Amino acid sequence: MATAHSRTAARLMVSPAVILLFLWMIVPLGMTIWFSFLRYNLLTPGNESFAGFDNYYYFLTNAAFWQALTNTLTLVLGVLAITVIGGVLLALLLDQPFWGQGVVRVMVIAPFFVMPTVSALVWKNMFMNPVNGMFAHIAKTLGLQPFDFLAHAPLASIILIVAWSWLPFSTLILLTALQSLDREQQEAAEMDGASPLARFWYLTVPHLTRSITVVVLIQTIFLLSVFAEILVTTNGGPGNASTNIPYLVYAQSLLSFDVGGGSAGGIVAVILANIVAIFLMRMIGKNLET
Amino acid sequence: MGNITLSNVRKSFGETHVIPGIDLAIEEGEFVVFVGPSGCGKSTLLRLIAGLEDISAGVIRIDGQDATALPPAKRGLAMVFQSYALYPHMSVRKNIAFPLKMAGLDPAVIEQKVANAAKVLNLSNYLDRRPGQLSGGQRQRVAIGRAIVREPAAFLFDEPLSNLDAALRVSMRQEISELHQTLKTTMIYVTHDQVEAMTMADKIVVLNAGRIEQVGSPLDLYRAPANLFVAGFIGSPKMNFITGAEAAKHGATTIGIRPEHVMIGDGPWQGTVGLAEHLGSDTFLKVEVPGVGTLTVRGGGEVGLHHGDTVRLAPQPDKLHRFDANGLAMK
């Protein structure tokens, strides 16, 4: 890549990919922005007219919006808390030598490969169902009243389902980080009189911060757009109790046939995601520097 | 404070007997060096003393007290690791303070002790840096500082200089020796480098395959090696070993003569120079002597011999080492 000639050639070579990716991103975004300023209802196609900021106004003043925003943040924070804390504990457990370690480590990743709709349906019908679910059976065996998870604690149930599928991801990343922890450092701390708990706190946790940062950043991106789990379990209900922003956009566009309002919601979601990203990078981005 | 006694200490990993049984007494204030080729069990022995490995049998006494079952932190020993094992996310100050903090000392006392250690080790200007921002020698000093502040009964060094470049190794070697003069604390030092052993030790323990071959002062080991292994290991370049008829003349199976004890000029052995290394201060010659073998000879800097020259050599008779069929030195 030394000469001007080879640099020009290199730019020419990568340009098709760059242009394609750019179009892939900018066309949907541009159309969404365009739709968000239109009065665009699927029941009366062909009657689109310019609406100014009306769509944004109605979306943001909708009572469901604020609930969806809180739900989105609760969902993200809840799943992050479970997967990070649970992931560290599981990784510590899997780092211990035990019989059948290899098989167990492979099996731990399994939930990650179950697609969201399937895992949510399995949880809904086989575990959380108040009549046939396993939890109901356990409750009845103990002489308790079965608890209808999805009706009475819909958001918590969805957090549980999503956390279950993301726990393997964080566990694996944190396990690899644990394995790179320097043995001599541990021994030095042992000689320095640090108890196992102190070693965990002063050596393991600082060593894991970078991996935890990676887990938090990657998971946040995906958790902001959780949709399938909500669609197949609660449909956002009861009421709006388990509606998050992506589900609200879906409901606006395809259940109320209001493409304009849905597009405005989509743009709001993009802006919110960017605010979250800026906050995250401010708070924990410095952990990624060397 | 600081005498350590090992009685019949053994260590096995499964069926492998790394240390088949060692008895050793380390006196207070001594600088003891464990030296031997890699895999001879010297690091394992140090880790047994530190308590990082459990011994399979035997007793370790520190200051007369049975320490065999004590956890590492309770033995009052401090260790400097080969990789330094500094805590990378802590500043130098916090690294040095860590053992004191774990001991639950008062912050003001900790600050005082850290400042003292930093002054002794010339680290005062680096206290707020992280280990990653320090050079190899400075990291080494931080590791030593972390050991010093604990005021241990003995220091354990596990090949601490092997990650440093040659020049730094020489100066750190002197610093550690000076530190020993100042602190007068027992130090146990593991190395595979016989030069480090010779220059630093009060007492050298030569280990081979988990066994002690000889214990003694550097010059004792140099002058009167107990067997072929010690004779070959101590001294640089290596001692020349001659077997066969030439050895039989002296009534031994093997005779050994150090390169510096072979005189160039007149003598019974005549040979051809194979290789001549002129270092300025010394000249090392590899001489092919028919019936004797290849001898390494150390001559003065003014020796002008080159490849292919014929030379006559004479061993200094009083510097000749004789070994029997079992490789043991004969008196």
How would you characterize the overall build of this protein?
The complex is a heterodimer of chains A (290) and B (331). Chain A has 290 residues and is mainly α. Chain A has a single domain, classed as MetI-like fold (Orthogonal Bundle), CATH 1.10.3720. Chain A is built from 14 helices and two strands, in the order H-E-E-H-H-H-H-H-H-H-H-H-H-H-H-H. Chain A has helices at 4-36, 54-61, 63-95, 101-108, 110-113, 116-127, 134-141, 149-152, 154-179, 183-191, 196-223, 228-233, 245-255, 259-284, and strands at residues 38-39, 49-50. Chain A has a two-stranded antiparallel sheet. Chain A is globular, with a radius of gyration of 24 Å. Chain A starts with a helix and ends in a 6-residue tail after the last helix. Chain B has 331 residues and is α+β, with helices and mostly antiparallel strands. In chain B, 27% of the residues lie in helices and 34% in strands. Chain B is built from nine helices and 17 strands. In chain B, the strands form four sheets. Chain B has a six-stranded mixed sheet, with helices on both faces. At the A-B interface, helix 10 and helix 11 of A face strand 6 and helix 2 of B.
**Total number of beta strands of chain B:** 17
Instruction: Determine Rg of chain B (CA atoms, Å).
Output: 23 Å
CATH class of chain A: Mainly Alpha
Strand content of chain A: under 5%
Instruction: Count the domains of chain A.
Output: 1
Helix content of chain A: over 70%
Structural class of chain A: mainly alpha
| Shape annotation of chain A | globular
SSE topology sketch:
The complex is a heterodimer of chains A (290) and B (331).
Chain A lengths: L3 H33 L1 E2 L9 E2 L3 H8 L1 H33 L5 H8 L1 H4 L2 H12 L6 H8 L7 H4 L1 H26 L3 H9 L4 H28 L4 H6 L11 H11 L3 H26 L6
Helix pairs in contact in A: 1-14, 2-14, 3-9, 3-11, 6-9, 9-11, 13-14
Chain B lengths: L3 E10 L2 E11 L4 E5 L6 H9 L6 E6 L2 E2 L10 E4 L11 H11 L4 H14 L15 H13 L5 E5 L7 H18 L2 E6 L2 H7 L2 E6 L2 E6 L1 H6 L4 H6 L6 E4 L1 H5 L4 E4 L4 E17 L3 E8 L3 E8 L9 E6 L5 E3 L8
Parallel strand pairs in B: 3-8, 3-9, 6-7, 7-8
Antiparallel strand pairs in B: 1-2, 1-4, 4-5, 9-10, 11-12, 12-17, 13-14, 13-16, 14-15
